[in-house]
Write a structure and sequence with these properties.
A six-stranded antiparallel sheet has the order 2-3-4-5-1-6, with helices on one face. The chain is α+β, with helices and mostly antiparallel strands and 114 residues long. The longest helix is centred in the N-terminal third of the chain and has 14 residues. The relative contact order is 0.29. Strand 3 and strand 4 form a beta hairpin. It starts with a strand and ends in a 13-residue tail after the last strand.
Length: 114
């Protein structure tokens, strides 16, 4: 799932600790298994970038508080439920708008050639 969340209060998008806790909570809600996480803040009042590495793949985020925007990738396989992860993020960040695109991946032998 690729989610573009806009219209978020800027103060919700600047804390590495808060964003990391939120992504970890969303991974747990999805039933995913957290392996590691790494987050970087770009300075006071600036955005955050980070990733939670999962046994099922990852959740990543990039925030732009000056644009009230966050880009989130939720990539999961197996029994994990990515929609639950997105629901947690939407509830916590309360975006005015959320555009979600779902990309289905498949093994090479299952791929459709055009």
């Amino acid at each position: 799932m690729l989610a573009d969340l806009s219209g978020i209060a800027p103060d919700q998008l600047t804390s590495c600790a808060r964003i990391e806790a939120l992504l970890r909570m969303s991974a747990q809600a999805a039933g995913a298994h957290i392996l590691h996480s790494h987050f970087h803040g770009f300075g006071p009042g600036l955005g955050v970038t980070g990733v939670v590495l999962l046994a099922e793949s990852h959740i990543s985020i990039h925030t732009w508080p000056e644009q009230q925007f966050a880009a989130v990738d939720i990539f999961m396989c197996g029994a994990a439920a990515p929609q639950r992860a997105l629901d947690v993020l939407r509830t916590a960040l309360a975006p005015a708008h959320c555009r979600v695109r779902t990309v289905q991946r498949c093994a090479v032998d299952e791929a459709i050639t055009e």
